Amino acid sequence: MVFDASGYSDDFAQQCLAGGKKAAHDFGLKFTEVKGVSPLEIEGLQARMARKGDNLLVITIGGNQDGALRRTAASYPGQMFAGIDSAIYDMPNVAAIVFRDDESSFLAGALSIMVSRTGRLGFIGGMDIAAIRRFFNGFSAGARAINPAALVSASWVGSWDDATRGRILAQSAYESGADVIFAAAGASGVGVITAAHERGKYVIGVDVDQRPLAPDNVLISVIKNVDAGVYRMIDEARQGKLASGAQFFGLKDGAVDITLDNAHSAVSPEIKTHLATLKGDIINGKTRIDGRGVRP
Fold first, then answer.
1. What is the model's pTM?
2. Per-residue DSSP letter, 201
3. Could you list the residue range(s) of the whole structural domain that residue 167 is in?
4. What is the mean pLDDT of residues 138-159?
5. Does any domain span residue 12?
């Protein structure tokens, strides 16, 4: 399992690590994790893992490794790779594990605009990559499904582990009129939660339930069960069943969701009932989301 410079600093990475270690334990596999500081070093680590020749699977964490992964996979066609949150769908030896974060984020956007008093929402992403764009686009689509006039501004930290920058961006968004911000920014999102607490505003958490960080400010969290997805992928690989191309995990699979069971009191019973209907429509295919918005 190859991590980038932020390593294991956020809940997303920790879940990936936990899923890999559990699969290794349960299936009697050897598990190795490595971390690269620079893009060049990350590509070298990918190649080193592939060059060993005896790895069942080389797993890369985060779509920001895609450029390196595409080159490494081309150089080692006999090695199977899996990219978590990857957008590489066209290589015969790469399985792209794609979580339908746009589905869960759609629910978060609908909830946020129903709670908002200004009709203005903010989104703060860690890196401007395809996986985080899914969060943003789903969030925006959900808000506009409830209020077509909703305004959703976006900004990007440029890092997964810069809480200071996350806090500054959040302060700016709140000052511009947003009263709910969704942070999909790894450990940088802790700074967004800090800003929400300081200003008495609302925020949406990500990856795991983050309400304990600021119970008065975190409305809900958008979660993804990455550990279960990694575990299932490794299980399929050891059975020779892991297919290349995009492997999708969404609301229907229980892979993504929102934490309504631990929601802030501002999320009324009426809002919860509306969200349950929206969720059912997504699961049964009545509402379809493709990361760019809602399809008929």
1. 0.85
2. -
3. 101-223+265-295
4. 96
5. yes
